[in-house]
Amino acid sequence: MDKQGVFREAKSWVLEAGKHIRDNINEPLHIETKSNADDLVTQMDQETEEFFADRIRSTYPSHRVFGEEGFGDDVRDLDGIVWIVDPIDGTMNFVHQQKNFAISIGIYEDGIGEIGIIYDVMEDVLYTAVKGEGAYRNGEPLPEVLKNRPLEKSIFSLNTTWLLEENRRVEAEGIRELVKTLRSTRSYGSAALEFAFVAEGLLDGYVTMSLMPWDVAAGKVILEEVGGVVTAGNGSELSMVDRSSVCATRANIHDEVVKGYIRLK
Ligand code: IPD
Ligand code: CA
Ligand code: CA
Ligand code: CA
């Protein structure tokens, strides 16, 4: 793949889609629910994904599209070049707050993450990485390697779903111990931004029990580019085709977190 060419194209489409969302942020939304009452989708999620699918297909007919809202292909493996697209990551924030959401695109070749782009649309902040060439925030390089920081001085992003009765994925006790050990926790409601914040050093880790490939595809490329470690909650390699738990942290604390605190059921 002509990585630089594809990156430039992808970046310009992300900026164009982001501007369209910003320009229409006060337009009425058609809000539908998907798998449950809290799982929202709007016409803007759908239009944005369709925009990317159309652009990708007309420019790169041999590439496949793996997207959340169904405009892509039926992707079950990562052979060849696959664009993993989340048109709006943080739809609930988009609906309730009109901010704190992102466009997220990861481009993988034969399973290897080569390009990651996360765009905080309302803040106009663009996080990018091309594998092996460093990560950037609005064109400014992020540190090459995140510094070590002990867990006791770390802030993690965690969502609270592990507290719920129906949480059958992880032992709550381990997460309680983690929360006690950490300096503090946050919860932003956009997995892509949470990855970007770890890469930027605003957060030291992000642990969550259930994400889809489009939530993590770009974030993994960007965070790994600054030396962060991204795995499933048990430390195994993260799936880019199925739902998975996720542990994404600075390198020095990753082992400690997956071995000492996250006990998947
Ligand atoms: C969601 C967000 C949220 C995470 C959910 C995701 P969406 O993505 O990333 O932070 O906790 O699991 O589904 O649906 O807004 O694209
Ligand atoms: Ca969604
Ligand atoms: Ca998402
Ligand atoms: Ca989404």
**Gap between N and C termini:** 40 Å
Share of helix, binned: 25-40%
* The top level CATH class name of the largest domain: Alpha Beta
Q: Strand-residue fraction?
A: 25-35%
Shape: globular
Which spans have pLDDT < 50 for at least 5 consecutive residues?
none
Structural class category:
alpha+beta
**What is the fold named in CATH at topology level of the largest domain?**
Fructose-1,6-Bisphosphatase, Chain A, domain 1
Binding site for Mg(2+): 68, 86, 88-89, 215
Cofactor: Mg(2+)
GO biological process, one term: phosphatidylinositol phosphate biosynthetic process
EC number: 3.1.3.25
What does this structure look like?
This protein is α+β, with helices and mostly antiparallel strands and 265 residues long. The protein has two domains: 3-141, 2-Layer Sandwich (Fructose-1,6-Bisphosphatase, Chain A, domain 1), CATH 3.30.540.10; 151-260, D-Maltodextrin-Binding Protein, domain 2. The protein has helices spanning 3-23, 43-59, 91-97, 172-181, 191-200, 213-225, 251-260; strands at 31-33, 40-42, 64-67, 81-89, 102-109, 112-120, 125-130, 135-137, 140-141, 155-158, 184-186, 205-211, 229-231, 244-249. It has a seven-stranded mixed beta sheet, with helices on both faces. The chain has a five-stranded mixed beta sheet with strand order 11-10-12-14-13, sandwiched between helices. Strands 1-2 form a two-stranded antiparallel ribbon. Helix 1 runs antiparallel to helix 2 and helix 5 (191-200) runs parallel beside helix 6. The protein is globular and about 50 Å long. The termini are far apart.
